[in-house]
Design brief:
This protein is an alpha/beta fold and 353 residues long. Helices cover 40% and strands 16% of the residues. It has a seven-stranded parallel β-sheet, with helices on both faces. It has a six-stranded parallel β-sheet with strand order 10-9-8-11-12-13, with helices on both faces. Helix 7 links the parallel strand 6 and strand 7. The chain is globular, with a radius of gyration of 20 Å.
Length: 353
C-alpha cells in the first residue's frame, strides 16, 4: 500500500476536469492505497483524507501574456503560495508518490521535494500538448501519464528518456448513462448542449454563432470569467433559444439527456471529460477536429472546423438528425473510471522503491 498525495489547488472550489479526475481516482484508490488530497477549497465528506490549505482560494482565471508564460501572473503566484504552504504537510505525510495537478511552480517544488524525501512524482498530462506540459516534462517526472496516443507521441519526442504511459480520463457510468431521466428545459427542441468553462480557449462564442444558423436551441452549462460577454452574445443572436445554467455536477446527466447533440468547440483540449460524459448519456458529439479528439469520439460524432460557421452548423444539424443508436454510449464504455483507477493503482504498485 503506497501513500499517495494529490496536489489540487482548485478542488473544493470548482468541479472541472482536473478536480473531477482527482476525486474520482482518489475514491477508487482508497483502500488499495493511502490517499490524501491537499487543496485550497473546503473539503467534502469523502472516504479519503482531504486537507484544506488556507490560501487565496478563488475561481480559476486564464493566464495571459508574457507574465502568464513565465508563471509570474496572479493565478500562477497563487499556485506558488499554495504549494509553499503545503511543504510542512508533505514533510509530515512522507508520501511515496506525489501527483501535482496545477503545473508551473507546483511541479518545480514537488520535484524538489520528491528528490529530498525519496518519493516518486507522477505527472498526469491534463494541460495537453503545449508549453505547460512541456514545462512539466522539463523536470523529468518518474512517470508522465499521457491522456491520448497523440499526447504520448508528442511527449516521447520531447523527452524520450521519460517513462510515458497512456491512461485516459474516465466517466462514472453509474451516474452518466442513457437511463437517466431528462430534465425538463424551457427551450424549444431540438437542443444543443454545451458544457464548458467560460474562458477564451473554449470558444463558446463560435458555438453560439453556429447554433444560430441551425434553428436549434442552445443549453450552455458553465460559468467563468467570460460570462457577461457570452450571455450578451447568446441572448442577442439566439434570443429565447439560449439558456445558460450553473448546475451542481451531480445534476448534469439529466441536463445532457435533455439534449439531442453535445458540442464543445475548444481550440485545444488535453482530453475533455465532458465528451465522454455526454457520450455516456448517449449524445453524439460535434467537436474540433484533431488527433486527440478523434481517439476520444471515434464514430460517435463528427469532427469539424468550428471557425467555419456554415460547416459547424451543418455538422450540428447532421449529428442531431442522425440515428446513432447506442454508438455514443458504447464508446463511453471504454472510459469507465473503475478501469482507469485500476490502471493508476497497477502503475503505482509497479513503481520501483
Amino acid at each position: 500500500m503506497a501513500k499517495i498525495v494529490f496536489l489540487s489547488f482548485y478542488s473544493g472550489i470548482v468541479e472541472r476536469g482536473v478536480e473531477n479526475f482527482t476525486s474520482e481516482v482518489a475514491k477508487r484508490l482508497q483502500g488499495k492505497h493511502q490517499i490524501t488530497i491537499l487543496q485550497a477549497g473546503k473539503p467534502k465528506t469523502n472516504k479519503f483524507r482531504t486537507i484544506q490549505i488556507k490560501t487565496f482560494a478563488s475561481l480559476p482565471k486564464s493566464s495571459k501574456g508574457l507574465l502568464g508564460k513565465l508563471y509570474l501572473d496572479w493565478p500562477s503566484i497563487k499556485i506558488l503560495i499554495f504549494t509553499t504552504r503545503i511543504i510542512p504537510k508533505i514533510l509530515k505525510l512522507k508520501p511515496d508518490v506525489i501527483i501535482p495537478l496545477n503545473g508551473g511552480w507546483q511541479t518545480l517544488i514537488a520535484r524538489l521535494f520528491t528528490k529530498l524525501i525519496g518519493a516518486k512524482i507522477i505527472i498526469s498530462g491534463h494541460a495537453g500538448i503545449g508549453s505547460d506540459d512541456a514545462f512539466n516534462l522539463l523536470f523529468r517526472p518518474d512517470v508522465f501519464i499521457a491522456l491520448t496516443i497523440a499526447e504520448a507521441k508528442w511527449a516521447k519526442r520531447l523527452t524520450p528518456e521519460v517513462k510515458i504511459v497512456i491512461i485516459p480520463n474516465g466517466v462514472d457510468l453509474a451516474r452518466f448513462n442513457p437511463k437517466v431521466d431528462a430534465k425538463s428545459i424551457s427551450l424549444a427542441k431540438p437542443i444543443v448542449v454545451c458544457s464548458s468553462a467560460l474562458v477564451p480557449y473554449k470558444r463558446v462564442d463560435l458555438t453560439i454563432r453556429a447554433v444560430a444558423k441551425t434553428g436549434m436551441s442552445l443549453l450552455l452549462l458553465g460559468d467563468g470569467e467570460m460570462r457577461g460577454t457570452i450571455d450578451s452574445l447568446g441572448k442577442r443572436v439566439l434570443g429565447a433559444k439560449y439558456l445558460r445554467l450553473v448546475v451542481p455536477y451531480f445534476d448534469i446527466p439529466a441536463y445532457y439527456r435533455a439534449g439531442k447533440v453535445f458540442t464543445l468547440a475548444s481550440k485545444t483540449e488535453a482530453f475533455g471529460i465532458s465528451y465522454i460524459e455526454a457520450m455516456a448519456c448517449n449524445l453524439p458529439v460535434v467537436t474540433t477536429s484533431d488527433d486527440s479528439r478523434s481517439e476520444i469520439v471515434g464514430d460517435a460524432g463528427i469532427l469539424t472546423d468550428p471557425t467555419n460557421f456554415d460547416q459547424y452548423a451543418k455538422d450540428l444539424k447532421l449529428a442531431a438528425g442522425s440515428n446513432y443508436r447506442n454508438k455514443p454510449y458504447a464508446q463511453a464504455l471504454n472510459f469507465s473510471w473503475n478501469k482507469i483507477a485500476q490502471k493508476y493503482s497497477d502503475l503505482i504498485t509497479e513503481l520501483p522503491k
